[in-house]
């Protein structure tokens, strides 16, 4: 081999075993109030998806470098589904059986690049898929104690609440997301699905601490540090 291949990101879980991350899928505009704040009228159109490299996952958060080429680096608090059983065209009633566990996550966004791409009809990649863009809290094994369909989701910056909603506000709940996504791709063990963010997204600056709390899951915290070299 010419060089050493990248090792998979290993995400810690509630059982002590690591979850090897395979791919990262993200849902766009899955909360009505957030769709409105982004300039859209949510009307339960089918969900849409974008992707990020597995290497963008930051297990258990911690320091996250302010990325280059942006002046508007924003947080998006999200429930993350960790897929343990693969499948294609998964039925709604079976969908949650494919989830190994659940975690709090952040879909960090270079909003200026995303909005420019949107305006120009270009792909979102540079706005959404970049180093350290997908912090992930500890994955809580699905054991019936956590219900992905309801429960408070909250994000604070330096202790101040910026996003506060309920998972029940999702336009497409977890099972629907799996049903749609598995019609587009064969889901595989190790896939992560970031299920979208509620209203209240906003920018961070170097020195900020961002925390995501979802009832029943371990909180996720990141600290924004100076730009990476
Ligand atoms: Mn998002």
Describe the secondary structure blueprint for this structure:
Blueprint: E1 10-12, E2 18-20, E3 24-28, H1 32-37, E4 48-52, E5 57-59, E6 62-65, E7 73-75, E8 77-83, E9 99-106, E10 109-110, H2 111-120, H3 125-128, E11 134-136, E12 140-141, E13 152-157, E14 160-166, H4 174-184, E15 192-194, E16 202-203, E17 209-214, E18 220-225
Parallel strand pairs: 3-15, 5-11, 6-18
Antiparallel strand pairs: 1-2, 3-4, 7-10, 7-16, 8-9, 8-15, 9-12, 13-14, 13-17, 17-18
Manganese (II) ion (MN) binds at residues 26, 76, 78, 107, 194, 196-197.
Description:
This protein is mainly β and 229 residues long. The protein contains four helices and 18 strands. It has one domain: Alpha-Beta Complex (Fumarylacetoacetate hydrolase, domain 2), CATH 3.90.850. It has helices at 32-37, 111-120, 125-128, 174-184, and strands spanning 10-12, 18-20, 24-28, 48-52, 57-59, 62-65, 73-75, 77-83, 99-106, 109-110, 134-136, 140-141, 152-157, 160-166, 192-194, 202-203, 209-214, 220-225. The strands form five sheets. The protein has a six-stranded mixed sheet, covered by helices on one side. Strands 6-18-17-13-14 form a five-stranded mixed sheet, with no helix packed on it. The protein has a three-stranded antiparallel sheet with strand order 10-7-16. Strand 13 and strand 14 form a beta hairpin. The longest helix has 11 residues, at 174-184. It is globular and about 45 Å long. 40% of the residues are buried. The mean pLDDT is 96. Bound molecules: manganese (II) ion. Residues 26, 76, 78, 107, 194, 196-197 line the site of manganese (II) ion.
């Amino acid at each position: 081999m010419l060089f050493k291949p990248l090792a998979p990101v290993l995400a810690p879980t509630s059982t002590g075993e690591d979850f090897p991350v395979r791919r990262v899928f993200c849902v766009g505009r899955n909360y009505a109030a957030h769709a409105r704040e982004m300039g859209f009228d949510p009307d339960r159109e089918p969900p849409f998806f974008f992707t990020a490299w597995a290497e963008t996952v930051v297990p258990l958060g911690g320091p996250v470098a302010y990325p280059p080429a942006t002046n508007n680096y924003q947080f998006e608090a999200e429930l993350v589904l960790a897929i343990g059983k693969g499948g294609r065209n998964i039925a709604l009633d079976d969908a949650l059986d494919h989830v190994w566990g659940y975690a709090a996550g952040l879909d960090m966004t270079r909003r200026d690049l995303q909005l420019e791409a949107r305006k120009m009809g270009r792909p979102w990649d540079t706005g959404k898929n970049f180093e350290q863009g997908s912090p992930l809290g500890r994955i809580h094994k699905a054991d019936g104690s956590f219900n992905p369909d309801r429960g408070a989701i909250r994000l604070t910056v330096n202790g101040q609440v910026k996003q506060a909603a309920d998972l029940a506000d999702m336009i497409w709940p977890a099972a629907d997301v799996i049903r749609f996504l598995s019609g587009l791709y064969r889901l595989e063990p190790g896939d992560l699905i970031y299920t979208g963010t509620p209203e209240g997204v906003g920018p961070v600056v170097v020195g900020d601490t961002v925390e995501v709390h979802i009832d029943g899951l371990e909180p996720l915290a990141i600290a924004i540090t100076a730009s990476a070299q």
